[in-house]
């Protein structure tokens, strides 16, 4: 009765959506446990592209339950749009379940996200401006409004009133802005509530029951390990816990119920937003990978910063989440290069280190120590056996296994669902 967590092992955009969608074929339930509409998960099925922000990547299968767990922050407007847009493309979304305990992103969170970033100037985080950080701030401050409150209009109105009074004080006196009015917010949120009502439930009970019945449950992480609030490159992080432990809190399941943790590793590294990035390529090679890999934010359209694969990071991610195996993605994007580099250590003040530093000033002084690999020609995405891959592809994957001490279970060879090589069964 496997429960499997899929975690990003870099700075997000590792291809978690593609891997989750691929594994979802065998799962009964797919659960998002943290983050919110800051996520952008691309899934390509039969050449049709779907970009998901709040909906779990299992939603594309009609017979699965897709759960938005308590740890997610939900923007009802984004969610309703996403549901309608999928339905207009013929996707049945009746398998969706939303935790009544999940917190809501409110219009003032989105405005605060913008104002806070503006006021930080050069020290800005480079957030997605979706209101995610401010929504988690209110959750921790115990003034948040939850999805379940949408079902009790009087309670919702009360909480909104209290919050608006506070937020408007900040908008007017601190930022010199106009106050926000209550009625339009109330109206649009209660309208969204009508659409969301049938999906809202106690999701933790549902997930635990599914595991007890022997069903297969897949937990889909958003963002990545190095965007984790505790373990990432703070303060250039998101406000939730993408690491595997986040799944327990964000879905309401005990750690003893989890069987496997799959770390998703992109064959190179990317980062959107600010903060240090040791293997960053600011040259033509980086630009080429960006173009080949369409490395532009799904959520914000920003060009992603690109760098070589950094196994110091992946190794640390593996420890933090207790990875049991890896899924390596976008091997196809790296085809056609003469030489590829992979970092396996850093040089800091003349010393070689293999641990990931907690201090950002130390990290920004770290020079990657690279192993060079010969490149490979275009990969046939239909390849179904390791032996059929070019020997240089296999050498690259073997190095990932050697440094991390983990087996590569899945290799993504193209954007489509079917362009995936399974080396070890996950479920
Ligand atoms: P997926 O799930 C990559 C980054 C933002 C910014 C920082 C904080 O597609 O991998 P936030 O809006 O969360 O407060 O921004 O986190 N970020 C992501 N980067 N992929 C994501 O999601 C991200 N979600 C947030 O760029 O640096
Ligand atoms: Mg993404």
TrEMBL record:
Active-site feature positions: 13 (proton acceptor), 41 (proton donor)
Any GO BP annotation: IMP metabolic process
Principal subcellular localisation of the protein: cytoplasm
GO cellular-component term (any): cytoplasm
Cofactor(s) needed by this chain: Mg(2+)
Sites where the protein binds Mg(2+): 13, 40
Transcription regulation found in the keyword field: no
Catalytic activity: IMP + L-aspartate + GTP = N(6)-(1,2-dicarboxyethyl)-AMP + GDP + phosphate + 2 H(+)
Family indicated by similarity: Belongs to the adenylosuccinate synthetase family.
Name of this chain's protein: Adenylosuccinate synthetase
